[in-house]
Amino acid sequence: MAARAPAQTGRLLLGFRKWYYNLCGFNKLGLMYEDTIYENSDVKEALKRIPENVYNDRIFRIKRALDLSMKHQILPKDQWTKYEEDYAYLKPYVDEVIRERKEREEWMKK
Q1: Three-class SS of residue 82?
Q2: Does the residue 13 lie in any domain?
Q3: Residues of the domain holding 60
Q4: Cα–chain-centroid distance for residue 51?
Q5: Model pLDDT for residues 27-64, shown as the tens digit of each residue
Q6: Does the keyword Transport apply (predicted)?
């Protein structure tokens, strides 16, 4: 029975993540998680580096969400962003920008 405990814990944790994802509400507007992050200078630079089609998709989702929010509406349930469909499209670029900034700061110290 002890061998099953980690798998059960993993399923429980995944269930909690899905529950929390739906509780946040941004998916009901068609947004993905990374559409909602705060745009500091690192994120702004990363947004300049993502492919144009990914950037256009992001802008479309944000504009649609703003329109829905202004109208006090949400998307039909079949159009909500699902936990399984949400992926980190921006994280690799943000990590690269942060790594470059830290490298530049180290270089300026010398």
Answers
A1: coil
A2: no
A3: 26-109
A4: 16
A5: 999 999 999 999 999 999 999 999 999 999 999 999 99
A6: yes
User: Does residue 19 come out as left (phi exceeding 0), alpha (psi in the -120 to 50 range) or beta?
Assistant: alpha
Residue 80, classed as helix, strand or coil, is coil
Coil/strand/helix, residue 39: coil
User: What pTM did the predictor assign?
Assistant: 0.83
CATH number for the domain harbouring residue 91 = 1.10.1090.10
In angstroms, the CA 13 to CA 19 distance is 10
Calculate the CA 6 to chain-centre distance. Answer: 27
Q: Are 26 and 35 in contact (CB under 8 A)?
A: yes
Q: Check if the beta carbon of residue 99 is closer than 8 Å to that of residue 46.
A: no
Q: What percent of the chain has pLDDT over 90?
A: 86
Q: Is 19 within a domain?
A: no
What is the percent of the chain where pLDDT is above 70?
Answer: 94
Question: Which two structure tokens, joined as six digits, stand for 95?
Answer: 């990590």
